[in-house]
Amino acid sequence: MESLPVTTKNDHRRGIRSKGIQTSSSSKPSLIMAFFSCVAWLYVAGRLWQDAENRNLLTTLLNNNSAQRPKVLTVEDKLMVLGCRDLERRIVEAEMELTLAKSQGYLKGQPQQNRRLLAVIGVYTGFGSRLKRNVFRGSWMPRGDALKKLEERGVVIRFVIGRSPNQGDSLDRNIDQENRSTKDFMILEGHEEAQEELPKKAKIFFSTAVQNWDADFYVKVDDEINIDLEGLIELLERRRGQDGAYIGCMKSGQVISDDGKQWYEPEWWKFGDEKTYFRHAAGSLVILSKNLAQYININSVSLKTYAFDDTSLGSWMLGIQATYIDDSHLCCSSITQDKVCSIA
User: Fold this and answer.
1) Cα Rg of the chain (Å, integer)
2) Where is this region: Disordered (predicted)?
């Protein structure tokens, strides 16, 4: 008969020990995992707290920026801004005019000179027209002391010319030398003298003239005509004080659309099916009152030019309150009596 296994006291103790060893060895990884879990939890919690702080900081900055952001301007606000700009421009113009007046001797104690001129007359000329200029100086246009006396009467006359495409070359130097001896030029520093640039020359001439002299009228004259100066002065005296005056020998005419023909207009298609120019003053002699010359000065950057200076000038007058004055005395090529100009 088989005997049953008997567990002795020693065996029981050994079992207890081995079980304790197994329990302690299995609990170590658990403790390590628990430690790393705590560390990971603390790291995640720290990042979440930091992100929350960053969000709060960004929210505060956005709120501050939105409070400083400009509001949408109303029409009244925009008008006020424009009014301030216009006032600033007038102040600058007044300072320029004051500086010019001082440089020309219009000082306190000389009230007889501190008055508006009657007219500034600009005679268009070119680099190759010196002989023609000398003819004018010996006929209708005063020179030397006579030119200064005319200015005392309120009439300024200058030859108007731009600069050479190659600035500083012999063409420019010759004009500078001639001007030093005659002192009767208005040199348009920002204008390149060329036939195709005549419309731009009109803008720069009127802008420069109205900036440099305070006059009732600004007159553009071609160098292809002779002037009855006293007759022109008398005509301007009669018109003195008339604002918005656009004066000349008014005409219209066909728009030439064939390239290569004389008077070709590259933008002929803008003038309608009949291809007819709007009414405008002939380019030989054009007179503008001061406020119209100021309009050109202020808006010169945005004014559209066409192929010719007289039609360009006429287009600028279309959209404003200009008073068209058709004066037959200014039709230089006609046979009208008592004209103030004639073909040279």
Assistant:
1) 43
2) 1-25
Fill in the amino acid letter for 174.
Answer: N
Separation CA 143–CA 183 (nearest Å): 9
- Please, is 126 exposed, middle or buried when counting C-beta atoms within 10 Å of its C-beta (0-12, 13-18, 19+)? middle
The backbone torsions φ and ψ at residue 225, rounded to the nearest 5 degrees and listed phi first, read -130, 155
Closest CA to 209 of 185, 182, 180, 234: 185
pLDDT tens digit string along 284-307? Answer: 999 999 999 999 999 999 999 988
Distance CA 28, CA 42 (A): 21
Please determine, for residue 235, whether its predicted confidence score (pLDDT) is greater than 90: yes
116-343 maps to which CATH number? Answer: 3.90.550
What are the backbone angles phi and psi of residue 169, rounded to the nearest 5°?
-80, -170
| CA distance to 114, 160, 171, 185, 192, per residue, from 177 (Å) | 31, 15, 10, 11, 19
Q: In which band, very low, low, confident or very high, does the pLDDT at 67 lie, cut at 50, 70 and 90?
A: low
Q: What does the pLDDT average to over 105-119?
A: 60
